[in-house]
Write a structure and sequence with these properties.
alpha+beta; HIT family, subunit A; five-stranded antiparallel beta sheet; 31% helix; globular; binds guanosine-5'-monophosphate
Length: 132
Amino acid sequence: MPSIFSRIVAGEIPSYKVAEDDRHYAFLDINPLAEGHVLVIPKREVDYIFDLSDSEIADLTVFAKKVALALREAIPCRKVGMAVLGLEVPHAHIHLVPMQTEGDLDFRRPKLSPAPERMQQIAQSIADKFRS
Ligand code: 5GP
């Protein structure tokens, strides 16, 4: 049974796509910690990020960097925070969260639920700034 994120990559479940290449996919977290909270995943389904090969984790990180640069242009912030948890979805992913304060990266905080139109607008604004 493919992970929910593999089903997103396959287009079986909708997502607010931010960027994609042949091996990676980036999309908005459905319950963001802050507006512009992005998930970056390898298309190859692996549960634990440190089970990726050296080259896979290196390439994933470089792809996440490009997304983070676009994110900071689209959503002005002090820095883009990066975190890996993976306690909920068993498909390796990097969280990228625009931060104004360190509390913006506190995963115990209540999540936001932006309206679909707002999510679409945010995803498009990041996608517009993304350079492969
Ligand atoms: P983690 O596995 O890192 O603990 O958390 C998984 C993250 O994926 C959560 O922040 C959650 O909001 C997000 N998430 C879970 N299911 C979906 C989904 O179907 N679509 C999107 N866009 N995000 C999801």
